[in-house]
């Protein structure tokens, strides 16, 4: 092997064909890839076990994804914002209601004053004490003017009462709506929490199982797997299935297949394309 890989001991190149079939430099199937990482060996059963660890890790990832994307999260957020919005409207309606109540009291007071003054004028008119024609005319004119004023003020009172009624009805309606939305929000939160608890329980069980299976995998193999898993989007070990790497889905070419075929059963083989640990099984198509 010397010429193609100077400085790399043969023992570090697991996928090379046995030295009984030497290759020339131009025939060499893989110029560099295997020299990157030191050779790792692991019993075939341990490599299969690594696939179990991988499957459990995938389940944990899926559970985390399910936890983060529960529809109840978005539902609860939407309800919360809806409740907040209606609460603001309710506060505004109640403010309008109390403002108009004050306005009404004030306007009614004005009506009372005008009415009292008109009554006094009327009394004076009927008492016969005012005899001067000019004074009488002035008194009658004031009574007429007060009557118009009272009319206007009563119209204002009616308008205020109408606005107050509208605000009151609106506040009542909004209070019902807020209560309804709050109940719905509480129900959604309860549903979300129940789903989260269920996912957490399942994750706990999977984590325990994962710890148990991983404990049986040799430490160096597990370490390599963890490193690759981090680099390769959560998949560090893949099955070689019908000549395909199940990590990157690519089919191994004939040279790569020959390398895998030639590798010792306990050699830890890597995918030429994605660098993941490639685990051989009876269905590898070798
Ligand atoms: Zn691959």
From TrEMBL:
Keywords: Coiled coil. It comes from the Bacteria. Residues 24-39 have a biased composition (Polar residues). PANTHER family: PHOSPHOLIPASE C-BETA-2-RELATED, SCAVENGER RECEPTOR CLASS A MEMBER 3. It comes from Streptomyces radicis. Pfam families: CT398_CC, Zn_ribbon_9. Residues 104-198 form a coiled coil. Residues 1-39 are annotated as: Disordered. Residues 245-278 form the C4-type zinc ribbon domain. Residues 53-233 form the CT398-like coiled coil hairpin domain. Residues 1-20 have a biased composition (Pro residues). The keyword Coiled coil applies. This is Uncharacterized protein.
């Amino acid at each position: 092997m010397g010429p193609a890989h100077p400085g790399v001991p043969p023992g570090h190149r697991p996928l090379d064909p046995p030295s009984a079939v030497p290759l020339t430099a131009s025939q060499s199937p893989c110029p560099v890839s295997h020299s990157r990482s030191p050779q790792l060996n692991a019993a075939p059963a341990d490599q299969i076990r690594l696939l179990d660890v991988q499957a459990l890790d995938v389940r944990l990832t899926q559970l985390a994804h399910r936890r983060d994307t529960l529809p109840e999260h978005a539902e609860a957020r939407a309800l919360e914002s809806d409740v907040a919005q209606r609460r603001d409207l309710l506060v505004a309606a109640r403010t309008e209601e109390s403002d108009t109540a004050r306005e009404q009291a004030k306007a009614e007071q004005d009506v009372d004053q005008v009415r009292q003054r008109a009554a006094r004028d009327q009394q004076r008119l009927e008492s016969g004490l005012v005899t001067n024609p000019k004074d009488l005319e002035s008194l009658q004119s004031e009574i007429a003017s007060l009557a118009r004023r009272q009319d206007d003020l009563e119209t204002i009172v009616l308008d205020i009462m109408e606005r107050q009624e509208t605000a009151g009805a609106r506040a009542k309606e909004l209070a019902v709506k807020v209560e309804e939305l709050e109940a719905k929000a509480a129900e959604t939160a309860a549903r979300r929490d129940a789903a989260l608890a269920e996912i957490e329980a399942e994750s706990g069980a999977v984590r325990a199982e994962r710890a148990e299976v991983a404990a049986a995998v040799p430490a160096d193999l597990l370490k390599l797997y963890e490193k690759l898993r981090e680099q390769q989007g959560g998949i560090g070990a893949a099955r070689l299935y019908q000549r395909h790497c199940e990590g990157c889905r690519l089919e191994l070419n004939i040279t790569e297949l020959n390398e895998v075929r030639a590798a010792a059963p306990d050699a830890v083989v890597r995918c030429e394309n994605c660098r993941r640990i490639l685990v051989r099984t009876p269905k590898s198509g070798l």
